[in-house]
Amino acid sequence: MKPSALSTHVLDSAKGIPAAGVAVELWREGALVTRAFTNADGRTDTPLLTPETFQPGRYELRFAMGAYFGVADGFLDIVTLNVGLAAGQGHYHVPLLCSPWSYSTYRGS
């Protein structure tokens, strides 16, 4: 069975650059698991879940995009992605491509 882990990457699709300084929270069953900030490459410095801390289940990734874009009353504020993570599926990578008006995501590699 492949060990599982979770990482993320945030890209500012309006400017075509990595989104640095975005607060990212990972929640499971209503409890905060971890909080991190994206670095200059738009990634967190460490995985949100390592093979040692990984537990299968439903998770919420919350990205503070309103704060990143500096728009207190903007269209997007906290972008929330609900994901199901299973054991033995290898590395989960969840990129977020975001502008002040829209976002998209996918399971990356």
UniProtKB/TrEMBL annotation:
Gene3D superfamilies: Transthyretin/hydroxyisourate hydrolase domain. The keyword Kinase does not apply. InterPro entries: Hydroxyisourate_hydrolase (IPR014306), Thyroxine_BS (IPR023418), Transthyretin/HIU_hydrolase_d (IPR023416), Transthyretin/HIU_hydrolase_sf (IPR036817). GO terms for molecular function: hydroxyisourate hydrolase activity. Signal peptide: none annotated. It comes from the Bacteria. CDD domains: TLP_HIUase. It catalyses: 5-hydroxyisourate + H2O = 5-hydroxy-2-oxo-4-ureido-2,5-dihydro-1H-imidazole-5-carboxylate + H(+). The keyword Chaperone does not apply. Its EC number is 3.5.2.17. Keywords: Hydrolase, Purine metabolism. Residues 6-108 form the Transthyretin/hydroxyisourate hydrolase domain. Homotetramer. Catalyzes the hydrolysis of 5-hydroxyisourate (HIU) to 2-oxo-4-hydroxy-4-carboxy-5-ureidoimidazoline (OHCU). PANTHER family: 5-HYDROXYISOURATE HYDROLASE, URICASE AND TRANSTHYRETIN-RELATED. Belongs to the transthyretin family. 5-hydroxyisourate hydrolase subfamily. This is 5-hydroxyisourate hydrolase. It comes from Teichococcus aerophilus.
